[in-house]
Amino acid sequence: MTEKLSRSTIQPKNPVLNVSRSANLPHVPGIRIGDYLFLSGMGPTDPNTGGRNHGPIGEQVRTTLNNVKHMLESAGSSLERVVKVHVVLADISHMDEMDRVYREFFPVNPPARTAWSMQLRFGNGCEIECLALVD
């Protein structure tokens, strides 16, 4: 007999960051299953206005990682509990700048990471999803 883990949706404390709901998208920003938290791909959404931040890529990555941090904290976790990150860039030539900003958030013992490039919706320069443990 297999044990069934509890499953619940995670919402950001700041409702402006719930892009899934405001855009009527068919997914939620995060799911908690047991001690694991899975965050959907997040983009550079301004936490004050809900608009998209289409500034320089370093600024977009910083905004997105701050939004990831907010979602983790909303769910009772933190950046220190992240075990896997998946980064998508709209332009692979921005990898060095993304790495520079990424190190601000994960300066020591960074989590496993996959990074690749593809065209993103809404003019975003980056999208980031992650897997974390819940405190």
CATH T-level fold name = 60s Ribosomal Protein L30, Chain: A
Say how many strands there are: 6
Shape: globular
Helical run tally: 3
What count of structural domains? 1
Word description of this protein:
The mean pLDDT is 91. This protein is an alpha+beta fold. It has a 6-stranded mixed sheet with strand order 1-2-3-6-4-5, covered by helices on one side. It contains 3 helices and 6 strands. Helix 2 runs parallel beside helix 3. The chain has one domain: RutC-like (60s Ribosomal Protein L30, Chain: A). The protein is globular, with a radius of gyration of 15 Å.
Structure described in brief:
This protein is of the alpha+beta class and 135 residues long. Helix content is 24%, strand content 27%.
Write the layout of secondary structure elements.
Elements: E1 7-10, H1 19-22, E2 30-33, E3 36-42, H2 57-74, E4 82-89, H3 95-105, E5 112-117, E6 126-133
Parallel strand pairs: 4-5
Antiparallel strand pairs: 1-2, 2-3, 3-6, 4-6
Helix pairs in contact: 2-3
Name a few traits of the molecule.
alpha+beta; 60s Ribosomal Protein L30, Chain: A; single chain; 135 residues
